[in-house]
Amino acid sequence: MSSLNPRAEGPSSPPPSYTAVSGLKTPPPNGRAGLYNGGNSVSPRRVKGEAANQTQCRNIVIYGYCRYQDRGCIFNHDTSNISPSKNPVSPSQSGIGSDMSKRKLNVESASFTPGQSPSFGNAIMASPQQSKLNPKVLEAAVFTPRVNALGLSAATPPMASAPLPQGNLMDPMMQTSGYLQPEIPPFPNLSGTFEGIGMDQTGQMNPYEYNPVAAHGAQVNPYAHQSNPTEVYYGQQSFTQPLQYHLYAPMGPHKSNLLSYQRTVHDLFLKDNLREDLQKKAEATLQTLPNSTLPNVDCYHTLVPLDLHTPKPQGKAAPASPPSTFGYTSWVYKAINSKDGRPYILRRLEGFRLSNEKAIRVVEHWGRVLSASLVTVHDAFTTRAFGDNSIVFVFDYFPLSQTLQEVHFGPNSRYQTRHHGPHQSQTQHANTEHTLWSYIVQITSALKAIHAAGLAARTIQPSKILLTNKNRIRINCCSIFDVLHFESGRTVLDYQQDDYVAFGRLILSIACNNPHAINNGQKSLDFVGRTFTPELKNFLLYLFHGPGNGAVRTIDDLLSMISFQMIQSFDSSLHQNDVLESNLSRELENGRLVRLLFKFGFINERPEFAHDRTWSETGDRYLISLFRDYIFHQVDEAGNPVLDMVHVLQCLNKLDAGSDERCMLVSRDDHNSLIVTYRELKRAIESSFSELSKRG
Ligand SMILES: Nc1ncnc2c1ncn2[C@@H]1O[C@H](COP(=O)(O)OP(=O)(O)OP(=O)(O)O)[C@@H](O)[C@H]1O
């Protein structure tokens, strides 16, 4: 394994204020240079090798008795063995180097009470010669007793004592510090529960009483007296109870059975196809039209036309042209609203004169309709900004969406080459039917919301249904006909019944892959009957003919006919949701790390403070710059840069979590080494950042 060393070049180091060992060249114990992992730990092997009954029970040491003595505790309960050297806070637990463990207690020793113990969490001494405690260590804040892994003390109720993030949570930059390293329980156990927290004689939870029987179960836990939390914390994942904010937690669903060494750094980020899709959509959203002559309309600017087809002119000018959906020349623009900065769709109908003011207010009724399968309409207004009388409808914008007309019947349609018939395989039929049911479920759900609001969609046709994602559709342009034909004299019920027929036509045309399938209705229905399941044909028959005896179609009848497909569709969307959440969780970690990198960038190499003695590269700043080298500027034996992204991710995550793990930082001239915990590094970055904020 190649050892990684920070570059041995650059300026020699100024004297750091952290505990440093000049000339320390001790290789790190785990083979990875610079990473010193828990040098104060008691080796599990040692504990394992000892006969358990020769090991002093900790409850005797701490409390003078062990309530499990007669209930299976396998450790030694002989009190005569207890000498001052069996300090309840063992050196290894307290974070003092191994040389300190040999020292006996004396009058100057910090006194121990179960509620308090001296903290030795600061930079540890790595040099065997250096036997005095770092003055910083003695000044360190008193140790608050470790409570259980949920951060609950014995006296406080669970909700009241949940660990609170440090820092100002309202400050986005400070939010990275919201991830505290949770308190680590003193005696992790195998069961994964918090059985190490015993009950005292009053029946109260006692976080200090160790229950060896519960913790060991039938077998002896070799880590039972393991007192270095970090070793258990990182080495024995299954033993740990606290949340590990610095690790990437793989979230399901997991489809591939890759082994850990087969995974790549890509597994830590969004899936490529999803990223590409989102980036293309972002690009489309931000697209502008250079040298555009399009005007600003009301509060909308930066108009980009989306309707790539030649507008279909109406009236005498072009009598042979097929009429556009609304009977007016229509234009579709993407535009930005200057009030909220968001993109919207403006659909302009050219040459429309509003004869009744009330007509345009119909749009407000559509504000009540909430459906995920509907393109929401926000506003409608008349304008002369285009040099004519136009009416403009404002809709939600869905980047890169296509109409079902384009998807199924357009020149570039992937369905064009497929001719339904005997040559199509069973799988292709099944896929087409799956798509059809997916459309049916979504349109039915939209109709349910629309009809319940006392309205009718009136635009169920291939060119007015948008495909915004795979198999994800939305009914577009609702409300336009309500305004255009405000005084038509027909009732809403009539229009609602028309919706069902239009729905049937849409599904029939897609099933037959022919936009004109309705022109030969019976033949098309026979084809559907032969090709797809009988449920689909029955569904279409209901849409075209209703329940019979002159009764009207109702949305509830429709829903009961497709209940099975609804369940299937619901299940698929739950799966899809899981996949997206899993992808989201990957970005969650990365978002935190970016904010951490921002802080690094703000702090490191500030030229304006170069001669400022209070800021210059000593103390915290020196530590941070060495840590920056440790993360990013490692080189291998041949001096080649090591570009190990996983190392960067691990370091940043541990830093953000303020882990107790230590790392060894080496000055650029190789003359000084520092051993610090990530917790200290985190503190250094936070204090430097807050100092910067005060100066700013
Ligand atoms: N809300 C929207 N979000 C994003 N794109 C949209 C939206 N509405 C329409 N579009 C896009 O604008 C283009 C034109 O849509 P339009 O509804 O005018 O289709 P059309 O076939 O031209 O219909 P018409 O015959 O009514 O003109 C389509 O490619 C469609 O994808």
Automatic annotation (TrEMBL):
Keywords: ATP-binding, Coiled coil, Cytoplasm, Metal-binding, mRNA processing, Nucleotide-binding, Zinc, Zinc-finger. Transmembrane segments: none annotated. GO terms for biological process: mRNA processing; nuclear-transcribed mRNA poly(A) tail shortening. Residues 564-602 form a coiled coil. ATP binds at R347, D396, Y397, F398, P399, L400, S401, Q402, T403, S463, K464. Residues 79-96 have a biased composition (Polar residues). Residues 1-51, 79-100 are annotated as: Disordered. GO terms for molecular function: ATP binding; poly(A) binding; zinc ion binding. Its main location: cytoplasm. One of its GO terms (cellular component) is P-body. It comes from the Eukaryota. Residues 603-696 are annotated as: Knob domain. It is found in: Cytoplasm. Residues 555-692 form the Pan3 C-terminal knob domain. InterPro entries: Kinase-like_dom_sf (IPR011009), PAN3 (IPR030844), Pan3_CK (IPR041332). The pseudokinase domain, the coiled-coil (CC), and C-terminal knob domain (CK) form a structural unit (PKC) that forms an extensive high-affinity interaction surface for PAN2. Belongs to the protein kinase superfamily. PAN3 family. Homodimer. Forms a heterotrimer with a catalytic subunit PAN2 to form the poly(A)-nuclease (PAN) deadenylation complex. Interacts (via PAM-2 motif) with poly(A)-binding protein PAB1 (via PABC domain), conferring substrate specificity of the enzyme complex. Regulatory subunit of the poly(A)-nuclease (PAN) deadenylation complex, one of two cytoplasmic mRNA deadenylases involved in mRNA turnover. PAN specifically shortens poly(A) tails of RNA and the activity is stimulated by poly(A)-binding protein PAB1. PAN deadenylation is followed by rapid degradation of the shortened mRNA tails by the CCR4-NOT complex. Deadenylated mRNAs are then degraded by two alternative mechanisms, namely exosome-mediated 3'-5' exonucleolytic degradation, or deadenlyation-dependent mRNA decaping and subsequent 5'-3' exonucleolytic degradation by XRN1. This is PAN2-PAN3 deadenylation complex subunit PAN3. The lineage of its organism: Eukaryota, Fungi, Dikarya, Ascomycota, Pezizomycotina.
